[in-house]
Design a protein that fits this description.
The chain has a 5-stranded mixed sheet. It has a two-stranded antiparallel ribbon with strand order 1-2. A two-stranded antiparallel ribbon has the order 6-7. The longest helix has 13 residues, at about 45-60. It starts with 12 loop residues before the first strand and ends with a helix. The protein has one domain: 3-Layer(aba) Sandwich (Glutaredoxin), CATH 3.40.30.10. By secondary structure, it is of the alpha/beta class. It has helices spanning about 25-30, 45-60, 60-65, 80-90, 105-110, 155-160, and strands spanning about 15-20, 20-25, 35-40, 70-75, 95-100, 110-115, 125, 125-130, 135-140.
Length: about 160
């Protein structure tokens, strides 16, 4: 079942890079008492993700936060080291990069993609959502993983 407005985000534990090395953050830790924008991508450094989807969120961090967003996070079925390298290469320090290495979150949310031949295994569909205290108040999923219109920062700003 794919997440929809009114659903609680599934419990999951993501890998994330901390100043002490790889760490973990749960869905609850990420969203409890907060308004969070969470967007999912098929893969770090892939063309649409790297050149189109992520840059809009980097550019609009301050505007999103001025509209009441406490945190912005991106999730992908990549390992924590790839996600850390992507964050550094994108100068995206204000965004939390979440590695859903085993696809635990995307599967539980009904947002898995594949297995896609180009990636070789299950990945995330391109999606974006707004969660308030862990409850989905907006969600969009792209019809094609090469598009980032319904799930880009502009669409999120409109939904806020």
């Amino acid at each position: 079942m794919t997440l929809k407005v009114g659903d609680k985000l599934p419990d999951a534990t993501f890998k994330t890079m901390t100043s002490d090395g790889p760490g973990e953050i749960s869905t609850a830790d990420l969203t409890s008492g907060k308004t969070v924008v969470l967007f999912g991508v098929p893969g770090a450094f892939t063309p649409t993700c790297h050149m189109n989807h992520l840059p809009g969120f980097v550019e609009h961090v301050d505007t999103l936060k001025s509209k009441g967003v406490d945190a912005i996070a991106v999730v992908s079925v990549n390992d924590v080291f790839v996600m850390d390298a992507w964050q550094k290469a994108s100068n995206a320090n204000a965004i939390t990069f979440l590695a859903d290495t085993g696809a635990e979150f995307v599967e539980a949310a009904g947002l898995g993609l594949g297995p896609a031949p180009i990636f070789g295994h299950l990945r995330s569909q391109r999606f974006a959502l707004i969660a308030k205290d862990g409850e989905v108040s907006f969600i969009a999923v792209e019809d094609s993983p090469g598009d980032a219109t319904k799930t880009g920062a502009a669409a999120i700003l409109e939904a806020l």
